[in-house]
Design a protein that fits this description.
CATH topology: Alpha-Beta Plaits
Structural class: alpha+beta
Order of helices and strands: EHEEHEHHHHH
Helix content: 40-55%
Shape: globular
Strand content: 5-15%
CATH architecture: 2-Layer Sandwich
CATH superfamily: Transposase IS200-like
Strand order of the largest sheet: 2-3-1-4
Number of helices: 7
Distance between the termini: 45 Å
Length: about 200
């Protein structure tokens, strides 16, 4: 019997979901862009907060603050929509995600800060980058190079944590790393904004 998921009204959670068999169905730029598009749409429609995110090649991590107890609805829509969009883009069928997503209530400031740092460290520990700011698929890099795109997803305390982390880490990033990350984020955000603009004009 499955353990009941702990839900708290207006709670803040660490949430993660893995691709089945650790396959790389999030590896391509297109795949990560699809995930970000879905995140942007859901946040706009539902009003919860993506306080932090890290999109890896075979899993995702989020810190999510809910309005009430809607976490299951958020994750159901997020994962289901990604599966539909991914399968259509790749001309495939079938499920993508492995076991049910993980969630844990972050009860204290210490819980939040430890989780925030864990998400920052994910691409570094996976040896994908040497500096946390060089992974373009995290809210840390997005807040540095496209703050207007993600800041409305965040609570003030999350913005504060991002600013402190960026101030600490930016000295360790080379100019080349900075320009590569900046270019990726600029291209992705422009694509998402253009698609959103087209959807509005179709209505």
């Amino acid at each position: 019997m499955r353990k009941l998921r702990e839900l708290v009204p207006g709670g803040t959670y660490h949430v993660s979901a893995r691709i089945n068999n650790r396959e790389l169905h999030l590896q391509e730029v297109l795949c990560k862009s699809i995930m970000l598009e879905i995140m942007e749409k859901l946040q706009t429609e539902m009003g919860f907060k993506f306080e932090h995110f890290a999109i890896m090649d075979n899993h995702v991590h989020f810190i999510i603050s809910t309005l009430d107890m809607e976490l299951p609805k958020i994750m159901q829509r997020l994962l289901m929509t990604y599966t539909i969009r991914y399968n259509k883009a790749m001309k495939r069928t079938g499920h993508i995600w492995g076991d049910r997503y993980f969630s844990r209530v972050l009860r204290t400031q210490n819980d939040v800060e430890q989780c925030f740092e864990y998400l920052n460290q994910n691409p570094v520990k996976a040896e994908l980058v040497k500096n946390e700011l060089s992974w373009p698929w995290s809210s840390l890099a997005f807040y540095r190079f496209a703050p207007d795109f993600v800041s409305r997803w965040m609570s003030p305390w999350s913005v504060d944590l991002h600013m402190k982390a960026i101030s600490k880490l930016q000295k360790g990033q080379t100019l080349r790393q900075k320009e590569i990350t900046k270019k990726v984020i600029f291209n992705v955000t422009m694509q998402i904004k253009m698609k959103k603009h087209k959807r509005k004009h179709k209505k």
